[in-house]
Amino acid sequence: MAFLRAFGAWAPERIVTNEEIAPRIGKDPAWILHMTGIEQRHWAAPGETVADLAVRAGAICLERGGIAPADVGMLILSSGTAERRFPGPASAAAHRLGLGSAPAIDMPIASAGALFGLALAAGLAERMGNILVIAAEKMSATIDHEPMDPNSGMLFGDGAGACLVSARPGGWQVVDWVLHSDGSAMDLIQLPLQGAFTMDGMGVIVHASRKIPAAITEVLARNGIEPSAVDQFLLHQANQNLLSRIAKSLGVDASRIYSNIRNYGNTSSASMLIAAAEAGPVGDTLCFAAFGAGLHWGALVARRE
Asked: What interhelical angle do 18-25 and 29-36 show, nearest 10?
C-alpha cells in the first residue's frame, strides 16, 4: 500500500500580469483572461534554476509531512525545462535537500510528469519507504523572448509542487491509477534541443478534453466509484476552459475541480501538485489527472486513510 501524506509548493516572487504580457502579443489583458482563465503568473529570476524551485517545494513538503531528509528513500523529479541535457536536476535537488545517497530519478514528462511520478512512487513505496515526488518547471525560459509567440506566451508560469508518498499509513491511500501514452501525436507539443517551444493549441485541447475524462472514468469505474462520489478533482492546470469542459464531460459541478490557474498560469508538470498543496486537499476521495506532451496522460484515485 502507498499513501499520499503531504504536499508542498513554491512559486517565484516575480508576478507577471496580463497587463505586462498583452502588449507583447498584441492582445488585450481582458481577452487573455477570457480565453485562458489566467490573470497572472510567476516567473523565476534569470539565475533561478529548476533545482532551486524543486528544493523549495520539496523542503516545504517534508516539513509538512514530518519526515527528516535522512528518512527519504527516493526522489522522483519531473521537469521538461531543465537547463542541460544531463545530469538532470534530480541529483542536485536531492543533494541540496540532504537526502544522502538515496536514488534520484529525472522524469522529463511535460505537464503529466507529476502524475506519472505519483504512480511510480505508489508502486515502489513498499520497497523504498518514503518517496518524495517533485515537479518543477521554468517555463518562462522557453517563451520569454522576442517576438513572443502569441499563442503560448500568455499561458505559462514557473513553479514547483511536491508530494510525499509513503508506505507508512496516513493521509490518503492510493487506490488505483491508469497511465497511457501515444507517440503518434507527439509533434503536437514539443521543446526541441535546438529551436523554440511549439504547440498546436487546438490539437492539444481536442486530445486533452477527451483523454482526461476518459482516464478518470476508467480508473473510477474499475473501482466502483461514480464521479459524483469524488470530493475533489486535482488536475493539471492547463486552461480554465479545459477544466470546465472536463467537469461537463464527467457530469460534476465545476466547483469539484480545483482551479488556481488564474494566479499561476500553466506551470506544466508542476501545476497538479501546486494545486494539491494549495487546495488542502479536502474530502475523503480525491482524483488526480493530467495530460501532456508525449502524448502522456492518466488518472489516480486516493481515499482518506
From this structure: 100
| pLDDT value of position 252 | 97
Given its phi and psi angles, is residue 159 left (phi above 0), alpha (psi -120 to 50 degrees) or beta? left
Q: Which residues are bridge partners to 72 per DSSP?
A: 130
> How far is the CA of 49 from the CAs of 17, 54, 137, in angstroms?
21, 9, 9
Do 108 and 78 form a contact (C-beta atoms < 8 A)? yes
Q: What are the residues whose beta carbons fall under 8 Å from the beta carbon of 264, sequence distance 6 or more?
A: 11, 40, 41, 42, 157, 159, 237, 271, 274
Angle between helices 240-250 and 201-222 in degrees, nearest 10: 40
Integer CA distances (angstroms), 301 to 80, 211, 252, in order: 25, 16, 16
| Cβ pair 241, 36 in contact under 8 A | yes
- 195 torsion bin: left (phi>0), alpha (psi -120 to 50), beta (else): left
Sole residue written with cell 469524488:
230
Identity (one letter) of the amino acid at 185? A
Do 174 and 288 meet the contact criterion of CB atoms below 8 Å apart?
no
170 backbone dihedrals φ, ψ, rounded to 5° = 140, 145
Q: Pairing mode, if any, of strands 296-304 and 285-292? A: antiparallel
| Neighbouring C-alpha atoms within 13 Å toward the C-beta of 70 | 0
Cis bond leading into 295, ω under 30°?
yes
Average pLDDT, the chain: 95
Q: Which helix (H) or strand (E) holds 78?
A: strand 72-78
Q: Is 228 exposed, middle or buried (0-12, 13-18, 19+ CB in 10 A)?
A: exposed
pLDDT tens column, 89-133: 999 999 999 999 999 999 999 999 999 999 999 999 999 999 999
* R_g (Cα) of the chain, nearest Å: 18
**Residue 28 phi, psi dihedral angles, 5° rounding:** -90, 140
